[in-house]
Amino acid sequence: MKQQLHIVGGGMAGSEAAWQAARMGVPVVIHEMRPKVETFAHKTGNLAEMVCSNSFRSDDDEQNAVGLLHWEMRAAGGLIMASADAHRLPAGGALAVDRDPFAETVTERLTALPNVAVSHEEITDLPDEGHWIFATGPLTSPALGDAIRAETGTQALAFFDAIAPIVYADSIDMDQAWRQSRYDKGETEEERTAYLNCPMSRDQYDAFIDAILAADKTEFHDGETATYFDGCLPIEVMAERGRETLRHGPMKPVGLTNAHRPDDKPHAVVQLRRDNALGTLYNIVGFQTKMKYGAQTDVFRMISGLENARFARLGGIHRNTFLNAPTLLDDQMRLKSKPNIRFAGQVTGVEGYVESAAMGLLAGRLAAAEILGHALPPVPQDSAMGALVHHITGGAEARTFQPMNVNFGLFRPVDGLRGGRRGRKDRYKAYTDRAKAAWSAWLAQIELDAA
Ligand SMILES: Cc1cc2nc3c(=O)[nH]c(=O)nc-3n(C[C@H](O)[C@H](O)[C@H](O)COP(=O)(O)OP(=O)(O)OC[C@H]3O[C@@H](n4cnc5c(N)ncnc54)[C@H](O)[C@@H]3O)c2cc1C
Questions:
Q1: The MnmG N-terminal domain covers which part of the protein (predicted)?
Q2: Which residues are paired to 343 by β-bridges?
Q3: Distance from Cα 138 to the centre of ligand 1, integer Å
Q4: Residue ranges of domains in the chain
């Protein structure tokens, strides 16, 4: 009798993990607490319920990283993508989904498999034995959250994200910005130049504050409490407290000299910090915000050096339970301190339906392979799956880790291609071609191993 795989949470990630493992021949039990125990966002007892928008975002697998993830999941026979395709709604280049029939299809197809059982119960601890995947999502139940904290330490599990916008490095105008850490602090040249600085004159600063105050903001969902404030005030809240507050906070100009115009003392400075080991992404330090996405791009492009910025992700603050995955998980998505447990989905620090399902797909395959005694080759870093899992399990800066959408900034650059906005189309096509080849080769390798 093969060992069972227990999957906690039957959302996007847990459902996909169960499908992949069961199709590899492993018996699976999904432990889903709904409908017995509810969350503030879910409304049904279905597996894979979409809690808010009904969009899987862009379906363009040549020019868009999330579209590429769709492609890779389809190539791997993913249930979430097949069910989304079956209930697709017209939405231009995006993949919009008829949410109720979608979740019903996922539920029916999973429960129709002879080796899948669903047990409606809340799991409140991290077992010492057996094979487990925890895919309990952004609204992980409080009792389980306590158990995870007890295992990982309080610093390693967050209950809110506070996401500062992330900019593609090659879209920052380095004729305006300069590299320097405040007071040139640091032991090495790399540390002394760890930040990118964007200067502001008094007039620019005044206009910037006016724009922040006037911008449209998003409200918290019902049931989300606003106890996030300690240490991560949204910039608009700081601006509301006083026009000078930001200049004394994240935008303070002290300890910095404009390398392009040393005699010109900036009135305020916006700092960006490297966000990944590849150096392709920079986050705007301290700029977590509830401004609406359209308003954010308009306001942040007022900053000198960011006039043409492209954003890998925009800022936000949400109720969101997630691990500091770069420190806690190994490259097989196992908890280092308890390797019989894997984590998958949004709780690992990815963001979004598609990314969560993708991480479920990987965790399901990795866990099933372990149970079956097959060692899988490493997930190729040039695929979208590999770029994302590599980011959360080591590529991201652990100290400032916040949830991440898939984006091309997570990919290793392709040599010999032009940077910047002009080369973008060719570059993205090169990334997606390379990713598809790498992912197809990985899948073929597994099929050969299993044969
Ligand atoms: C209010 C809100 C709005 C969002 N809006 C969007 C959006 O518009 N677009 C988007 O892409 N993403 C959105 N997200 C993020 C979205 O939740 C995730 O992208 C996706 O659902 C995560 O998939 P998952 O499988 O990791 O978690 P989920 O889909 O949430 O699944 C986790 C499952 O685990 C169960 N569970 C939790 N704790 C336990 C326990 N102890 N025992 C047993 N079962 C448990 C839950 O009931 C749930 O079914 C939103 C999140 C929230 C909270």
A1: 5-373
A2: 134
A3: 5
A4: 5-161+320-445, 166-314
**Residue owning the nearest CA to atom 45 of ligand 1:** 9
Per-residue pLDDT at 376 = 87
How many angstroms is it from 222 CA to the middle of ligand 1?
Answer: 15
Task: Tell whether 153 is in a known binding site.
Answer: no
CATH 3.50.50.60 fits 5-161+320-445, yes or no: yes
Which atom belonging to ligand 1 lies closest to the Cα atom of 49?
29
198 and 304 in contact (C-beta within 8 Å)? yes
Cis before 35 (ω within 30) = yes
- Closest residue to atom 33 of ligand 1, CA basis: 9
* Span 115-134, average pLDDT: 98
CA–chain centroid gap for 67, Å, is 15
User: For a substitution probing ligand 1, which of 51, 95, 292 has the most ligand atoms within 8 Å of its CB?
Assistant: 51
User: Could you give the CA distance from residue 431 to residue 203 in angstroms, rounded to a whole number?
Assistant: 41
Q: Tell me the CATH number for domain 166-314.
A: 2.40.30
> pLDDT (tens digit, 9 = 90+) per residue, 160-175?
888 899 999 999 999 9
CA-to-CA distance for 227 and 329, rounded, in angstroms? 27
Neighbours of 451 (CB within 10 A): 5
Q: In sequence order, what DSSP letters do the residues of 80-107 get, joined into one string?
A: HHHHHHHTEE--TTEEEE-HHHHHHHHH
How far is the centre of ligand 1, averaged over its atoms, from the C-alpha of 324 (Å)?
A: 18
CA-proximal residue: ligand 1, atom 31 (nearest)? 11
Q: Please, which residues bridge with residue 167 across strands?
A: 282, 311
The ligand 1 atom at the shortest distance from the C-alpha of residue 41 is 1
pLDDT digits (tens, 9 = 90+) for 215-270: 999 877 666 655 555 567 899 999 999 999 999 999 999 999 999 999 999 999 99
Torsion of CA 238, 243, 248, 250, to 10 degrees: 50
302 is in an annotated binding site: no
